[in-house]
Amino acid sequence: MPIALSPPFRPRNGLTKFTNCRLVRGNKLVQEDLWVSSLSGKIVNSQAAFFDDLVLPDQTIDLGGRIVSPGMIDVQLNGAFGFNFSTLLDDMSQYGKKVKEVQKLLVQTGVTSYNPTITSQRPELYQKALPFLGPSGHLQEAEDGAESLGAHCEGPFLSPTKNGVHNVDVLIEAQTFEDLEACYGKHNLTPRAEGEQIPIKYITAAPERGQMMKLIPELKKKGIIYSVGHSESTYEEASEAVGLGATMITHLFNAMRPLHHRNPGIFGVLGIAESLPRPYFGIIADGIHLHPTTIKIAFNAHPDGFILVTDAMHLVGLPDGAYPWTNGDTTCNIVKVGSKLLLENSDTIAGSSITLLECVNNFLQWTGTGIPHALQAVTATPAAMLGLQGVKGSLDAGADADLVIFSEAQTPGQPSTLVLDEVWKFGTRVHRATPPKSE
Amino acid sequence: MRLIIRDDSDGASDYVANYIINRINTFHPSAENPFVLGLPTGSSPLGVYKVLVQKYKAGLVSFENVITFNMDEYVGIPRDHAESYHTFMWKHFFSHVNIHPSNVHILNGNAPNLEAECVAYEDAIKKAGGIDLFLAGIGEDGHIAFNEPGSSLASRTRVKTLAYDTILANSRFFDHDISKVPRMALTVGVQTVLEAREVVVIILGQRKSLALQKCIEEGVNHMWTLSSLQLHPHPMIVVDEDATAELKVKTVKYFKSIEKVAQEAGFEQILPSKVRTGNGPIPQTTVDEVSSPTIHAPQPTTSRLLRATPATEYPIRSVSPDLVPDRMASRIPEPHLTDRLTPNPEQQAVQNAITA
Ligand SMILES: [Zn+2]
């Protein structure tokens, strides 16, 4: 007698198979299937699932040749959809609620994880806000939307002459680690209990200010990434910081000394290939902060360190107009025109309100380096900068199943641009740009 | 024996894939009566898998109730190694179709007890009701699965040490480093293949032409293990033109003409109904102890081999005209040959009538 076969109705296993698609793998687009699990929230080794677990996917999705990318990561986002992370609320329990609202909207832009960024503020704000901004992915709730990978504290240990739009009055110097604790709060830097995660993922500080240079190794020991930025550092100082463990440069070229042929400044450390690991660096490709050619030069100097960031203000996602902005104690107006943000009655750039996908498409148009490279700059590279290679920004088995599905828009004679179709978080579809007709 | 010749490798692969699909579809496999398919790896069947996947995606075949048994697997490389036959099957076939993993059988080259693994494999084939169709490819030396020259034609699933030539040939898949090539493999035996109710072999390219010639035009010989197919009741070999390079023109013409005649008569695929629809008798599997490295004295296996094909499975009407040497030329459409060489009863009768 033939052996009895498995029944046609099989228990649901949460597996989805994408087929007829192109996967972003390294700097290539590879025609390959992808299996994800909504139960584990991970990308699945399909061959092992088949031969070991004897399972078939619950659903197979034919993508008709479209592109599957890891979910995008924005390592510098100041706020979005009207909420600024650097805001002190009377009732701070509302703060957590606001963050969650932002995350649910943010994921629809293809950003599946991000570093909420606090600009230079007084200690009180850090201590009250940071507990709401720590890593939020441990529950793997797809419905929560974009996931915080930990807060980015941009300031207040910055150079007052490279403050950008940061309020000079709140900028301070640190002589000891206790000074950092006094500002950010002790338990935002050191876990209360072993194994507990702290909210801060990385800080941007000027190494030449106070004794900051000496504090870099201690930060590194605590697992906090040190990024050089808003700084008057010379090439020598920046090199020293990198030697001590700085692995990132915040918005390269902006709020730092320009490249000078006799002192290449912070940019110069991208040229050190010999003795030190070269740092990662953030680039704002909004067409305002940097000239397209400057971006091209930076990319070619160190493509593996190139990270596209938005540095977007909370006005991203809102209509054009003048919006009041409270920066510390002063309130002024910011004028939003498209993705451009200016301080009212001035030429000062007040950050951007660009989306990360717009940055990617700008980069594609300006450099023609190809889709995989552009997507790497918002997936694998930021993940590596955050020490999350293989977990985020990757389509390898075992990585978190955060995905974006893109179509390509072709314009004759120009590099194609990406159009966002779907967003998946932890193996579950959380957004569709155009709902299917049948629904 | 049916020998199907196609102009090129695509044509041959197409033919085999469509043949398999046809067999599955006319079989109407169900959970109770699944279609059991034996499968090879290697470059020759690649095109067949490609077409099978295309046709599956086009909705022309389903593997829902198909059980598969693979021919062989290396010993001692990780299952998910890029060159393992598990990976090959996953990459080229299983990942693209709706076959259920519990219906897939591939020998485990990392089993703690390899001999027990081989015995269990034969048992699993038996439990599945025997193999309905075994698809195979061959090596340049005419080996089928890892049954290299000199393998017993009565062999069953077992551990096999690879010939040095095979190791050398396979080193191209292992960074050209001979030390990385597995030394052993698990393989179904020649007899395991012959017990399938039908065997289809795809042979492509000039490099395999000598092997094809040995297996078709010469006798059964353990140095060319595919030649054992001559003892099977329903074998079919599908080749491209290049693979026929060593065959006699006469042989090629003969088989081409048979296909033409059969096609015209509309019985291209005639198998006994039991083979066509399953529920056939379970082949008697006597699992000889795997420890048969040397045969000290001639065993009666040969005679058993010749008996192994149950007479009940022969076609009720013949599949193709029998090969009667003195009638062969009559099938070749060349009139003068027909006139000269063939005793023609009708003509003789006419002549007799005139002289009478
Ligand atoms: Zn800044």
TrEMBL record, chain A:
Which coenzyme or cofactor does it need? a divalent metal cation
Q: Reaction catalysed?
A: N-acetyl-D-glucosamine 6-phosphate + H2O = D-glucosamine 6-phosphate + acetate
Cofactor comment text? Binds 1 divalent metal cation per subunit.
Coiled coil ranges (UniProt) are none
Q: Which keywords appear in this protein's UniProt record, sorted alphabetically?
A: Carbohydrate metabolism, Hydrolase, Metal-binding
Q: Which residues span the membrane?
A: none
Tell me which residues bind Zn(2+). E154, H230, H251
Stretches assigned to the Amidohydrolase-related domain: 67-408
GO MF terms, alphabetically ordered: metal ion binding; N-acetylglucosamine-6-phosphate deacetylase activity
Under the heading Gene3D superfamilies, the entry gives:
Metal-dependent hydrolases
Residues that coordinate or bind substrate: V165, N254, A255, R262, H289, I349, A350, G351
Query: Does Transmembrane helix count among this protein's keywords?
Result: no
Q: What is its EC number?
A: 3.5.1.25
Q: Where is the active site?
A: D311 (proton donor/acceptor)
Query: What's one Pfam family the UniProt record gives for this protein?
Result: Amidohydro_1
According to its UniProt entry, the protein's GO biological process terms are: N-acetylglucosamine catabolic process
Secretion signal: which residues? none
Q: Which family, according to the similarity comment?
A: Belongs to the metallo-dependent hydrolases superfamily. NagA family.
Output this protein's name. Answer: N-acetylglucosamine-6-phosphate deacetylase
What species was this sequence derived from? Trichoderma asperellum (strain ATCC 204424 / CBS 433.97 / NBRC 101777)
Q: Which lineage is the organism of this entry classified under, starting from the top rank?
A: Eukaryota, Fungi, Dikarya, Ascomycota, Pezizomycotina
UniProtKB/TrEMBL annotation, chain B:
Q: Family membership, please give it.
A: Belongs to the glucosamine/galactosamine-6-phosphate isomerase family.
Signal peptide from the UniProt entry: none
PROSITE patterns xref list? GLC_GALNAC_ISOMERASE
| Reactions performed catalytically | alpha-D-glucosamine 6-phosphate + H2O = beta-D-fructose 6-phosphate + NH4(+)
Task: Supply the source organism's classification.
Answer: Eukaryota, Fungi, Dikarya, Ascomycota, Pezizomycotina
Does the record carry Acetylation as a key word?
Answer: no
Alphabetical list of InterPro entries matching this protein: Glc/Gal-6P_isomerase, Glucosamine6P_isomerase, Glucosamine6P_isomerase_CS, NagB/RpiA_transferase-like
Q: What is this protein called?
A: Glucosamine-6-phosphate isomerase
Q: Which organism is it from?
A: Trichoderma asperellum
- Cite a GO CC annotation: cytosol
CDD domains the UniProt entry points to? GlcN6P_deaminase (cd01399)
Q: Which residues form the Glucosamine/galactosamine-6-phosphate isomerase domain?
A: 8-222
Molecular function per GO: glucosamine-6-phosphate deaminase activity; identical protein binding; isomerase activity
Q: Main role? A: Catalyzes the reversible conversion of alpha-D-glucosamine 6-phosphate (GlcN-6P) into beta-D-fructose 6-phosphate (Fru-6P) and ammonium ion, a regulatory reaction step in de novo uridine diphosphate-N-acetyl-alpha-D-glucosamine (UDP-GlcNAc) biosynthesis via hexosamine pathway.
Region Disordered, annotated ranges: 334-356
Q: Which domain of life is it from?
A: Eukaryota
Keyword Isomerase, does the record have it? yes
Q: What is its EC number?
A: 3.5.99.6
